[in-house]
């Protein structure tokens, strides 16, 4: 289901969401991702927040080589794929219904020699978190995962569980509604949060968060 109802004739730019694939030149690779709006909805198309986060990672502000990275709510897998191509060991996660689709995109876009550095895994926020021990990851990535208010408590619980004192969280999102601002307020109860990048053309913000007990930079 779409985030908001729309008439494709009135908003032709959104028609790209219904295309069966999307292509990008990122991390010195041509990435071709399958999309499947009709079957999986918002989880199976590439949103601007994912593209902007990939561009931010390409800038080299965050050193990804050898880092242990987890992507939450990965959807098409674009962010996790780019992180892996930039040298990280990546666990790409989403709910079970999206895993087959996600796995196919990873297999298509990660070179054979790097396949071992990428794992696709089921993670529903707030559930079975013991399978992902605290401190297992240096970096947590999320693109456009702040949009459904009913998921905020489970998302916050998941971020708190995964984060050790040296773990960095990067969230890329468009601030659409007051509820999104409320999420950031709740996040600041446990994390030190600051905006590190803003794409004015796409209206996408990237926030960096670290548990309040640490000032360590990645």
TrEMBL record:
Gene3D superfamilies: Vaccinia Virus protein VP39
Any one biological process term the GO annotation gives: methylation
InterPro entries, sorted: Methyltransf_16, SAM-dependent_MTases_sf
Catalytic activity: L-lysyl-[protein] + 3 S-adenosyl-L-methionine = N(6),N(6),N(6)-trimethyl-L-lysyl-[protein] + 3 S-adenosyl-L-homocysteine + 3 H(+)
Residue ranges crossing the lipid bilayer per the database entry: 40-57, 69-92
Record carries keyword ATP-binding: no
Domain of life: Eukaryota
GO MF annotations in UniProt: methyltransferase activity
Subcellular location: Cytoplasm
Keyword S-adenosyl-L-methionine annotated: yes
GO cellular component: cytosol; protein-containing complex
Sorted UniProt keywords: Cytoplasm, Membrane, Methyltransferase, S-adenosyl-L-methionine, Transferase, Transmembrane, Transmembrane helix
Family membership: Belongs to the methyltransferase superfamily. METTL21 family.
Protein name from the UniProt record: Protein N-lysine methyltransferase METTL21A
Organism of derivation: Cyprinus carpio carpio
């Amino acid at each position: 289901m779409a985030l908001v109802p729309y008439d494709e004739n009135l908003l032709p730019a959104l028609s790209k969401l219904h295309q069966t694939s999307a292509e990008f030149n990122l991390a010195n690779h041509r990435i071709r991702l399958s999309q499947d709006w009709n079957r999986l909805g918002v989880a199976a198309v590439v949103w601007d927040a994912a593209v902007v986060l990939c561009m931010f990672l390409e800038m080299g502000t965050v050193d990804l080589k050898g880092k242990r990275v987890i992507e939450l709510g990965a959807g098409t897998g674009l962010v996790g794929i780019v992180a892996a191509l930039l040298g990280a060991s990546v666990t790409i996660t989403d709910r079970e219904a999206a895993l087959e689709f996600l796995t196919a995109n990873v297999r298509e876009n990660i070179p054979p020699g790097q396949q071992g550095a990428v794992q696709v895994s089921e993670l529903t926020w707030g559930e079975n978190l013991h399978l992902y021990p605290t401190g297992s990851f240096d970096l947590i990535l999320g693109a456009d995962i702040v949009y459904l208010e009913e998921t905020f408590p489970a998302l916050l619980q998941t971020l708190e569980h995964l984060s050790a004192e040296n773990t960095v969280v990067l969230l890329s999102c468009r601030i659409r509604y007051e509820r999104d601002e409320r999420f950031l307020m709740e996040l600041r109860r446990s994390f030190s949060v600051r905006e590190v990048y803003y794409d004015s053309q796409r209206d996408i913000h990237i926030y960096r968060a670290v548990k309040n007990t640490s000032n360590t930079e990645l």
